[in-house]
């Protein structure tokens, strides 16, 4: 299943979102504003998936799903741009990035904070590879409510090692743990490549072996749990 969906015409919103609106609602820093200037051509609020537009009931955590189009100046972009938009819009968002006749779908698992329902918690981003913008779209998955639809839309974006079974939040946390461990391994390897003293190389190698073992255990746990 492609992560690009044929959204119903009844859900079309089609409004350009001024960058200044994002800055204001997200409390954007000077650095973030410059990223928008350098990397973003236009932001479009493409679709609003809500009970009144697609006839699916809201759930406690997903009352609407928004689809935003972000036209980029180049294929290089910072996820901090998406994080700023997610901070500004109090609903789950699926992003469709476009640049030079290519497209890329991106989204993070987004949920209301348990400590403060007025705040949102945004996880790491999952994304497709770049592909031709003219590629096919698939019908929206069948779901009982907007929460179930959000689960399936995010699942289409998640890598194969995340699996397709089990609660969405558990699969997201597992993928984030795998990514965090991989980043740790990359940092250890960088230290190892920079170290010239043999005794410290031995210590770092041992640390690397432990981290690789932990990554393998996390990966195996995902398979064993059917995730």
Describe this structure in words.
Strands 2, 3, 4, 5, 6, 7 and 8 form a seven-stranded mixed sheet that branches. The protein starts with a strand and ends with a helix. Helix 6 runs antiparallel to helix 7. The protein folds into two domains: 153 residues, no CATH class; 52 residues. Strand 4, helix 4 and strand 5 form a beta-alpha-beta unit. The radius of gyration is 20 Å and the shape is globular. It is an alpha+beta fold. It has seven helices and nine strands; from the N terminus they run E-E-H-H-E-H-E-H-E-E-E-E-E-H-H-H.
Describe, in short, the structure shown.
By secondary structure, the protein is an alpha+beta fold. The protein has helices spanning 19-26, 30-39, 51-54, 79-88, 146-157, 168-194, 198-224, and strands spanning 5-6, 12-16, 40-49, 65-72, 93-99, 102-112, 120-127, 131-132, 138-139. Helix content is 43%, strand content 24%.
Strand content: 15-25%
Helical content class: 40-55%
Largest sheet: 7 strands, mixed
Structural class: alpha+beta
The number of helical elements comes to: 7
